[in-house]
Design goal:
This protein has ten helices and twelve strands. The chain folds into two domains: about 180 residues, Ribosomal Protein S5, domain 2; about 170 residues, GHMP kinase, C-terminal domain (Alpha-Beta Plaits, 2-Layer Sandwich), CATH 3.30.70. The protein starts with a strand and ends with a strand. The chain binds alpha-D-galactopyranose. The site of alpha-D-galactopyranose has 11 residues, from α4.
Length: about 375
């Protein structure tokens, strides 16, 4: 069917640089070889219909004039994308959209960015909107912040659009538009793999807590007289009085240094050093930024007990996934160790999978 356009958009893991993309810091995500597929067909009656293979998702329908608050649940990402396009003056006349996900639901692997950016890319094709990648990323971000209600940065959208196989994307978020550069990843040549542990945990506090962290960082930057908190020097934590703001700032400035250390370790293929940096990032997110949760901490501990070179939570936190760098022959031991620890806590079984750095969003012929 030639009138159907299909886009495959990967999820992402963030290797390092967590909660820095709204602080003007560097982040280092990579697109992964698990995708969301968006199939789209144009309509001319002002109606949008969406079908999804998510468990329990029924068909959703709304008009192209949809406004925030008029759609809820899984379809908010689709409705938010239509709304964000319209907000930028890109009106579409209607569409049928089919979403198929190969990302575990709620795994924090950016199925939301994959969905919004995939829908925007498909509608761009169908209606000849002439959007470039930066605009598609901004539409995805606007859909999440203005419609879904999560005031996210731009890391996930850029990662799922601009990733390339075998590379991470180093994003400098202090510039507008953000500057990006591919960073070659050669751990597989050196006998290592990246493992994702999808904890299955999702804490309901999450959305409000993300916004709260963002607000705390903005307050700290303001008190320090900085445009971006990632510009803070070592004196910043001494200058701040509030203990919470001190801790948040400590994370932001140490994480900024860790990203630079990680890029350096990757370029030298110094994998044990990279592993140490990843694990230190987790401790900072757990103790100073306080966005981890027991399921993520246990996943990281179990991965390290099973011999991983390093491990950390990835993404926004409060559930979702952890990553670990390990040898392929140790993946099974890691899986067993994590499962045993989860069983002891009576938590449901986490999904453990090896991922590879993959290409970003691309159109697939029907
Ligand atoms: C979520 C957001 C990103 C980023 C991360 C934390 O994934 O969508 O913009 O802030 O959390 O690094």
């Amino acid at each position: 069917m030639t009138d159907v356009c299909r886009w495959d958009v990967p999820g992402r893991v963030n290797l390092i640089g967590e909660h820095l993309d709204y602080n003007g810091g560097p982040v280092l995500p990579m697109a992964i070889d698990r995708t969301v597929t968006v199939k789209a067909r144009a309509r001319d009656d002002g109606q949008v219909n969406v079908w999804s293979d998510l468990p329990g998702a029924a068909k959703a329908s709304f008009p192209t004039t949809v406004q925030p608050g008029e759609v809820d649940g899984w379809a908010t990402y689709a409705a938010g994308t239509i709304w964000a396009l319209a907000e930028r003056g890109h009106t579409v006349t209607g569409a049928d959209l089919v979403l198929e996900s190969r990302l575990p639901p709620g795994s924090g692997l950016s199925s939301s960015a994959a969905t919004t950016c995939g829908i925007a890319s498909a509608l761009d094709d169908l209606f000849g909107l002439g959007l470039d990648r930066t605009t598609i990323a901004l539409v995805g971000q606007h859909a999440e912040s203005g419609f879904v209600g999560a005031p996210v940065g731009l890391m996930d959208q850029i990662a799922v659009l601009e990733g390339t196989a075998g590379h991470a994307v180093l994003i400098d978020t202090s510039e507008t538009p953000h500057l990006t550069r591919p960073v070659e990843l050669e751990w597989e040549e050196d006998g290592l793999v990246l493992v994702v542990i999808a904890t299955g945990a999702h804490h309901s506090l999450a959305d409000g807590e993300y916004a709260a962290r963002r607000e705390e960082c903005e307050r700290a930057a303001e008190e320090l007289g900085l445009e971006w908190l990632a510009q803070a020097g070592l004196d910043a934590t001494v200058r701040l009085e509030d203990e919470t703001l001190k801790a948040r700032t400590r994370h932001v400035l140490t994480e900024t240094a860790r990203v630079r250390g990680a890029v350096n370790a990757i370029s030298r293929r110094a994998w044990p050093q990279l592993g140490t940096i990843l694990t230190a990032s987790h401790a900072s997110l757990r103790d100073d930024f306080q966005v981890s949760c027991p399921e993520l901490d246990v996943a990281v501990e179990a991965a390290l007990e099973a011999g991983a070179l390093g491990a950390r939570m990835t993404g926004g936190g409060f559930g979702g996934s952890a990553i670990a760098l390990t040898a392929p022959e140790q993946v099974q031991a890691l899986r067993e160790r994590v499962e045993a620890r989860y069983l002891a806590h009576q938590w449901s079984r986490p999904e453990v999978m090896v991922v590879h750095a993959a290409d970003g969003a691309h159109q697939v012929p029907n």
